[in-house]
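Need a sequence for this fold. Nothing fancy.
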């Protein structure tokens, strides 16, 4: 679904409560932004997003610049309002023709907000990550960069709201360096606080040469668990949830095709998982 196809007619003003940088100064900037929404009935489940209406480019007749951001924690009902958290990376891009660098409008707008400011939101949108009906099911969670945000909420949801679930949970979290592992690094290392059962394992996936331009090394991390992953993907009780940039899809397909015994076999297996609701992607 394209951004212009989302219904943004229902809007509400949210107030910024806090904005905290959660990556060190030595790497790229990611902020956790807490927002109070003055609607006691508002809710957003793990895996859902809210729309942000940043100021548009008036010179092009654009009133708003619309972007989606996944809720990075469970909504907290408070006295007369609901508090949510967003995980936002300050972005820029370089025009491939002119070489000029442009700031991402929505991300920089959000990162520049300060407590007391207001922002217009819409939503929520998207399907929530579902807790399997089988309490002994296996969950394989694969997040890249800020794609860890919905899994932070989902892991906390498992711990707080699904005590009956006792299956294995593998979280593969990809980033270029250990400093970039959101909610695993020194400024904010709180991910596993919400789910300390012996069936939970968080597996870091880093670049093999972080100071070069090498991609995150999904191959080595997944191959190191290859035999078990191959077995689990053939198990009808396994669910795989993926979140992050769209480019992760091709990277994962290459590795899983190798584990499955070839691209054709993996294509068939993946289509079966998707059809059964056991392979869910939240990509942007």
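Here you go.
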């Amino acid at each position: 679904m394209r951004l212009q196809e989302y219904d943004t007619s229902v809007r509400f003003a949210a107030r910024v409560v806090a904005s905290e940088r959660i990556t060190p100064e030595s790497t790229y900037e990611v902020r956790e932004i807490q927002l109070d929404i003055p609607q006691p009935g508002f809710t957003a489940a793990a895996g859902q997003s809210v729309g942000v209406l940043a100021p548009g480019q008036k010179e092009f007749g654009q009133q708003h610049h619309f972007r989606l951001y996944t809720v990075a924690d469970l909504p907290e009902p408070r006295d007369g309002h609901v508090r949510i958290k967003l995980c936002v990376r300050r972005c820029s891009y370089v025009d491939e023709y002119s070489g000029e660098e442009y700031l991402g409008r929505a991300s920089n707008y959000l990162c520049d907000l300060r407590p007391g400011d207001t922002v217009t939101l819409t939503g929520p949108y998207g399907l929530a990550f579902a807790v399997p009906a089988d309490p002994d099911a296996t969950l394989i969670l694969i997040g890249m960069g800020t794609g860890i945000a919905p899994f932070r909420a989902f892991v906390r949801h498992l711990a707080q709201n699904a005590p009956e679930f006792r299956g294995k949970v593998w979280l593969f979290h990809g980033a270029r360096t250990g400093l970039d592992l959101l909610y695993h690094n020194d400024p904010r290392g709180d991910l596993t606080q919400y789910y300390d059962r012996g069936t939970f394992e968080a597996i870091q996936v880093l670049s093999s040469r972080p100071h070069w331009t090498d991609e995150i090394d999904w191959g080595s991390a997944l191959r190191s668990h290859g035999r078990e992953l191959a077995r689990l993907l053939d198990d009808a009780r396994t669910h795989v949830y993926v979140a992050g940039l769209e480019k992760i899809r091709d990277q994962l397909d290459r590795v899983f095709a190798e584990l499955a015994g070839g691209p054709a076999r993996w294509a068939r297996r993946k289509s079966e998982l998707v059809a059964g609701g056991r392979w869910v992607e939240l990509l942007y």
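For context: The chain has a mean pLDDT of 80.
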